Amino acid sequence: MNSPVEAISFYVFAAVTLGSAVGIVLSKNIVRAATCLLGTLGGVACLYFVLHANLLAAIQLIVYAGGTLILIVFGVMLTSKSPWAQFSPTRGQVAAAVVVAAMLAFSMCSLMLSADWSRPSGSLLESPKVAEVGKMLLTDYLVPFEVASVILLVVMIGAAYLARPEK
Amino acid sequence: MAQITLPWTPKDPEKLRAYRAKAVKLLFGLALLQLLTAGALYTVFSIGVPARIEDWKVIVVVLGVLGPAAGFGACFLGGLAVILYRQIGAFLRLPWVAFVLFCGGVVGACLLVWAHALLFDFTKHMLEKPIGTTEVATDLLGSGLVAPLTVREIYSEIRSVIPQPLAAYLLWPLQFDLVRDLVALAGIIGFVSIVPVFGIWWERKVAGRIQSRLGPMRVGGWHGWLQSPADGLKLIFKEDFIPPEGDRILFRLAPYLTFVPAICAFIALPFAGAYVFRDLDVALLFILAMLGIEVVGVILAGWASNNKWSVYGAMREACQMVSYEIPMGMSLLIPVMTVGTLRLTAIADAQGDGFHSWLLFRNPFCFVAFFCYYVAALASCKRAPFDLPESESELVAGFHTEYSGFRWSLFFFGEYAAMFIVSGLAVILFLGGWKSPFPESWALQTGGPWYQDFVARVLNGMLLKEGPILFILKAAFLYYVQLWVRWTLPRIRIDQVLYGCVQVLLPLTMLVLLGNTFWILATKHLELGWVDTLDTIFHAALVILGYILVIGMIAIAAYGYMNRRRLVGTLAVDHLPGA
What we know:
- The complex is a heterodimer of chains A (about 170) and B (about 575).
- Chain A has about 170 residues and is an all-alpha fold.
- Chain A has two domains: about 1-90, Four Helix Bundle (Hemerythrin (Met), subunit A); about 130-165.
- Chain A is built from six helices and no strands.
- In chain A, helix 1 runs antiparallel to helix 2 and helix 2 packs antiparallel against helix 3.
- The longest helix of chain A has 26 residues, at about 55-80.
- Chain B has three domains: about 1-90, no CATH class; about 240-525, no CATH class; about 525-579.
- Chain B contains 20 helices and no strands.
- Chain B has helices spanning about 15-45, 55-90, 95-125, 150-160, 165-170, 175-210, 225-235, 250-270, 285-305, 310-340, 345-350, 365-380, 390-395, 405-430, 450-465, 470-490, 495-525, 530-560, 565-570, 570-575.
- With about 575 residues, chain B is an all-alpha fold.
- In chain B, helix 10 (about 310-340) runs antiparallel to helix 12 and helix 12 (about 365-380) packs antiparallel against helix 14.
């Protein structure tokens, strides 16, 4: 944090992110939960902007806020029986969720406690060049990149199979 | 002469007199307060301006002193304007006076933009070095004046030139980024507010001409040019209705979710090389992201209204946007690939040498990509023929059926701002941005005596070299094309919309993307003589095609003007200026 403005904006956006994350968990209405998700995704994108990771922030906004979120809301609208669809989890679901959340919290806490929090030596002021990111994706990280595309292709074929009319 | 009555003006004449006396007292009190503030400011600064002022002190000065002072000043000027309007309002409403006022306003706005540029240019040169360093700057103005770096230096420099020390204080705040950002933000918000107001009036006039009508003619005198502000006032005073069975919170939130991203997109949209709030390296992606988020507001509006027409509109919007975003993004990739950057200022700089260097004419793939982009952009702004989300013949008003008043108008602010943004993107990526259509060698030399310098700068900025005015003119032309298309083409059905995207536009843009990749590979990375020859031939052919298009458009417009009585009838024509 180089200036008070950066520090203040960090705390503001962190508060937005966490607050809307709490909203997602607490709201019983699916569309409201999705709207809170917009706050979380947008807050994380703003945190990326504060950290000068412009490419990451823009991609976050396009892919998650502009794409995935709309598909979620769209799916809710198309599939829910009534416009005011509510979550009403059973006890078993709550128990399973508690177990999963506890495991996740435990692993994240242990990871954070063992992490090296010293500052990186490089300056954070310069955003990494987009061209360099692209070059790395197509040279050093080509295999993970292609594997991800193949997975997406499989998902797409599966969706098309599910959606096609019965013959 | 019509008296203007404000909504809070009392009807009873006795009370009215007391009210007027109170208003006058209030205005004079405010003026006195402002004078006192100015005096206090002056005294404080006369005692001594510290050479280095921390950012927080600027915040205190701006928020604590200048803000209230500006507010008082605005109140005072507003009161003066009301009094003045009462006296000469009838005169102002004469058609020729209104016309002169309108033209004067436009020219004045252009000059203001230009003066603002000069001022910032000047201060930027003066204060480029960090404040407080003692490095001697270079000789800037060719007059032996050494650029002052600290506030004290500026103060003494300016006092040596101009006797009044006031100028130094006026210049002093410009050296802080915060103040510059505040000015730029105010400019952006002002621009975003003016574009829909002017755009809606323009749209109604164009629609009228296309349908052989007059369009708005009454408010403001000359061609109803005050119609939109009057409508805005009406909307603010309308009943604010929220459907009782809807989702109150989301219903209130939705208009802001459409309007705020549209303003945010202007943060990264450059109007000219220096006229950009933040010159992001991922500006294009950022703007696309903001245009994508706008849809969330529309969907939520439809859903929260709890009205079947609204939900239909929202669903149509969702599937239209999600499908048309893909061809839009892919066709935008083509100029990005050709230039090799996502920075919009760099893309515009790459096409600086006149009409021939515009990316539209660079190769056949760019040419096709422009039209693909424009169609997809029309769909993503939900403009006709793709205005399914609000198609008034089927869905009442689509997603905004339940909205009224100010919230309703926010949707339109968002839509018209988005129209300008997609036009601006097309201009920057394909039509040379803020560069002039003439070759670079045509630009006049600046320098020389001040009057020659002034004329050269004005001509360069408006026509011959580059500038925000050129950008706005080009973007306004594409905006105008959107109006044409809206009022000439019939609305298409939702299945046709989706067919057009998935089966026509998407394969076409993919083909163009692939073709452009190979073209760039062949022309830039392989040393093949015949490919270069082919490239030159295609470039020349496309430029000739461009000339034919421009000349053809002018010829058709001239033909229409010659035969205007036969084409639109005498009723509409006789009110045209110069008819």
